Amino acid sequence: AEIEGYSKFGSYTGNGSTDGTFVYLGFRPAFWISKNTSSTSEWVMIDNTRDVDNVAGQYLFANTSGAEGSASVMDFVSNGVKIRETGSGTNSSGHTFIYMAFAENPFKYANAR
Fold this sequence. Notes:
Blueprint: E1 7-13, E2 22-24, E3 29-36, E4 43-47, E5 56-61, E6 69-77, E7 80-83, E8 96-103
Antiparallel strand pairs: 1-8, 2-7, 3-4, 3-8, 4-5, 5-6, 6-7
């Protein structure tokens, strides 16, 4: 189940541009996985451990045994992700993608002293 400030699940529509879709999450993600539901493609996984700076591009396919790949896939921003590539795995124009994301700092409220 989705937990505010910790995890987000949903869908977005690709636009086929390097100035791709922005997906609002309400947090900066640490881990992202998505799948094109409009065609056959892989489950794309990206995290902030292998790519500490934007543009995040070190990815793995969850459903294959293939080696890590590299492309300019997306920016992890303070409140979501900005897609930066045109590939069928993350941003085909008019295609629907499902995703799940988990927060880098999974706290809904700060406990300042």
